[in-house]
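Subject: Interface between my chains keeps coming out wrong

I've been trying for a while to get a sensible model of this assembly. When I model each chain on its own everything looks fine, but I need the whole thing in one frame so I can look at the contacts. Pasting all components below, labels as-is. Any help appreciated, I'm running out of ideas.
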Amino acid sequence: MSDIGYVRTEMLPEQAPPNATSGPIKWIQDNLFNGVLNSILTVLSIVFLYYVLSIVLPWIWNGSWTAGSLKECREVIAAAAGDHAGGHGHGAACWAVIRERYLQLIYGFYPSELYWRPNLAFIGMLVALLPILFSNLPRKMLWFSACYPFLAFWLLWGGSIFVPLGIMVGFVLGYAWMQVLGKRFGSIVGVIAAILAPVLWWGLAVGPIDTALSGMVANSRMDTVPAKLEREIEAMTSINLQEEENGLPKTQTFTLDAKKAQLNAFNNLPILPAKVEAAEAALSEGVAQGVTGEDLEKLEAAVSNAKNELALTKRTAGRIGLIPVESAKFGGFMLSIIIGVTGIVLSLPLGILLALGRQTNLFIVKSLCVGFIEFIRGVPLITLLFVASTLLNYFLPPGTTFDIILRVVIMVTLFAAAYMAETIRGGLAALPTGQYEAADALGLDYWKATRLIIMPQALKISIPGIVSNFIGLFKDSVLVSIIGLMDPIGLTNNIRADANWNGIVWELYGFIALLFFIACFSMSRYSMYLERKLKTGH
Amino acid sequence: MSAITDPPKGGFQFSQLIYDTRYRSMTIQIVALVLFLLGVFWLLNNAAQNLAALGKPLGFSFLGEAAGYDINQKLIEYNNQMSHGRAALVGVLNTLLVAVLGCFLATMLGVIIGVLRLSSNWIVARIMTVYIEAFRNVPVLLWIVLMMAIFIENLPTPKAFRGDNATASMWFWDTVAFTNRGFYLPKPDFLSGSMVVVIVFLLSIVGVFVFRRWSRKRQEATGEILPNFWISLGILVIPTLLVYFVMGRPIGLESPELKGFNFKGGIYMRNSLIALTLALALYTAAFIAEIVRAGIMAINKGQSEAAFALGLRPNRTMNLIILPQALRVIIPPLISNYLNLTKNSSLAIAVGYMDITGTLGGITLNQTGREMECLLILMAIYLAISLTISTIMNWYNESVKLRER
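Reply #2:
Try treating it as a single job with all components included. I did that and got this:
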């Protein structure tokens, strides 16, 4: 055996592969020039890319960040480009408008000294989302998530702390009723009670309780707070004066106005009860004299007006909470996020119910659900927003008016719920029948089977659909600009109405598109990650 | 054992309505129906009271009154003396115009982009990915206003075409003008004798169908395949062209001409129409491209390999093997994208294009103050359009669906 001399005993060193089969040249050959058609396409693409980038990149890069108006901006750019560029100053972006207005594009007309409130609400939202998105975090954090909606409402709109607390108590009340009555009289009675009790509580009790508590607080603070308010108002006014002298924008004007209103309320508080009494006396006198018709209505209106004024004054003076901010001041991306997040959170339970309703064999329930879903999916969102802005108040008891953002959120929720229902129905249909049968075989009733076996699996399957619904809803929230709310696109018109920025187009649209792109793109990537993580198949 | 299935003795008890599964579903349904009807009654009652208090009871007679506003883009005769109903009809046609143009354009673009995204060419596939992600992740309303801004800001005014040293010029041998007010296209001008050409053309179309049928029968009988495409094209084009020249070219083109400060003649398409159609088509194309890509990727590679093994050529493999199977995956989501495009066309109001939302839901609503009636009709129209599209497309889907056993 040992005489086989031609068997090599040591390995040769590895040689680099020939150039044509590896490395960048091979890659270029395989991916860019493999065939005549592909070579043509590659050359065309490169020419196209060069053409687009040679216009867009200098436009972005050479932009001016410092000018105070569009005219100034164009002059700066024309000067920088020199005489040969035509000198119009259109060749580069005027980013100064973004520098000046980015806060407005994000917060709308929300008072600048109160920006910490939406900021805190946003951070709170992320914290509240964490335990939902990542299942390895402590489950106790879910309590914060449950309380977060009320906290966010209070932070954003401000006002008395008793209102969000009262709304929260309503939910607890509904749950308690469902437990008690459900055990005693069966689940149907329990569910009806759980819906009726909180509605009655919110409609009839929360407002008066808030007024009464605030009134008590106001009375107890009569001696100390007005004096303190006066000192604060004086200090703030002098700060504002200083700022005006130094040519700076005035800060804290909103807080100042709120404090003045509160002081005013304290001053009015002792006078108003007498006013109410006078109005009531006039009414009883009128009734005694037999006044009827319009005159009687006028007297009654006077009484209710006086009472409302008193209640409002009590709430303003004795407010324990934050300075209220009305919905008209909301705008920008803040508004988009509020509408999108509220819509999706509220539409999820509604969508689950609708999907279950569409899957049941109860004919009437099924028809109602199918009718609702198909109706909503058949009409554009903009018509529903028109309903929100012009029609919704008609369907409520005479004299009721409520906030435009709330109306929009209601319609957006209904809209999203129909789409959510279809997504979840897809998940339900994708579950193998064996899962339903196994749940039945274990002796679980309908709700238990749904809650423990069906829904966790169906929701998992529908996650990509739910996320794309959310992205769609977030994008659709800009439609509210058509009914006059100040979302980012609505704000562009507002900014252009300023004489300084009249005629500015691309910079604003580009900025808004970029922010939307970042938000939506990262969400779609997150959903892909979630899909991979939750995949239990092979 | 029989005690379990037997009904309880002692007659019907009230609690059975809740606890007995035989009656429970009935109870639930009746409760649901009663609650629903009560809710609807409550809403309608409130609406009736509120409308009565405002002094405008429900009525549709306003549709017959003179509208009093102009619509600048119209497919049928309309002037401001005509009724609100007629204005609404113009709006419906405008909506359908955008929907049809947009769906057509979006499908063409979407298929091309979807196929190119699967291309082995790295740079082309990347460009298409960027396109798809850019359009899908930005609101369509933003694209619409952006497209409108591009037309207004970047195209020349009609004034720029005037004079000896005009800064802008018309395209395609002076027949098409792109201005910032809209596009002016040549209009076919039918002279005497043109009817013959049209009739010959229609007959040729019939001829193509007859030929196709005959060709298929021949293929089934003999196995021979004719160059169907070229023969069809010949049948379609040659007789018509012959007659056209024999009759002395009766169909001409009326090009738009610059008169005074604006173009006259030809077909005028407002820039709002074009911007809206283009934005909707580009936006929807990004979604369709993903659908097409998913459809093609869903077909097992073995299918094309099997087709090649049978000796089919690439184009016949595509037509007979891949496409019929891919269509089954593509059609259902394609339907919902057509519906989305149609519904999104209501955003026309943002660029001032007078579709049904702009006429009935916009000016008519504001002029007459009839929110309830206008929005009811508006929703009914959109619902009808949506249901029609989904019925037609579902019917088509049924015809390409996989038949199993």
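Reply #3:
Confirming on my end. The mean pLDDT of chain A is 84.
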